[in-house]
Amino acid sequence: MSISVRHITKNYGSQKALDDISFEVGAGEVVGFLGPNGAGKSTLMKILTCFLPPTSGSASVAGSDIYSQSLKVRRNVGYLPEHNPLYLDLYVKEYLELVSGLHGLKDRSARVKRMIEQVGLGPEQHKLIGALSKGYRQRVGLAQAMIHDPQVLILDEPTSGLDPNQLVEVRALIKRIGEEKTILLSTHIMQEVEAICDRVIIIDKGRLVADDKAKVLRSGKLQREALEIEFGQDVRADLLLNIPGVLLAENKQGDQWILAHDASVDIRPAVFQFAVDHQLQVLGMQKSERALEDVFKELTRPKS
Ligand SMILES: Nc1ncnc2c1ncn2[C@@H]1O[C@H](COP(=O)(O)OP(=O)(O)OP(=O)(O)O)[C@@H](O)[C@H]1O
Ligand SMILES: [Mg+2]
Which range marks the domain in which residue 127 is found? Predict the structure, then answer.
């Protein structure tokens, strides 16, 4: 697994920013990380990149533990933080050389040159970062995240504030990078997920509320069948997603789950087999049909 998050909880004083989050991301997956403002996305990303310790739980990234092997994690992870902090009074090349120095890379100027090509910074490479437009600053941010050729990229809202042209270009860039790397990317834009991601994880108020294979988004079929099911015990979303035919596993409340599936498949036999294999009781099961957009809104709307 490229990213493994196990029961991560993070408290800021009395506020619970993350509440028992668990999921796994396989090598090469491009995962969209969604949730309303304040859901805890940036907090989890800071934890996975060793900028912030969790209150409890554990995680490993690129096979290394965030506590005991944090230097290894940093070596194998590229991180574009929220708001893309950069030194505005450095030149583009100067900054990228500084970053490669921090990583202890040997062939610095060759790497900087390759990165500038890869992210399309060529025409702007001789400018001060402070003189760049927002889209080009994003490219500098992506370049610094990738300069050490990490296996895993963690990108916190990489396309926020871009104009429509730059948006298309930066998305295409991320998509191209995603062919070789594992990417966890946060965004507020559904179309972005549709364009780039294989899978979607949605959190709300620090809790994981959906783990969705984005096939369903890509296919453009917003209507699909769903099965509401109540188990007698705790069960994890990523295990439910392994049931053949299941496209989406959302926690409704407690041990009640909604499993979306292609309308052509009857997943009920597989769900019963899953329950038997995992020694779970099935307390109830019924069919339902909803649109994905509604699912997102319903899962993340403020509860009165
Ligand atoms: N350093 C901090 N100290 C105290 N509270 C914090 C701190 N950082 C984040 N929080 C709180 O934790 C919660 C989650 O914040 P986080 O930045 O992770 O959300 P987010 O999902 O990234 O939101 P957005 O979509 O607005 O970027 C928020 O309520 C926020 O106010
Ligand atoms: Mg954030």
Answer: 3-199
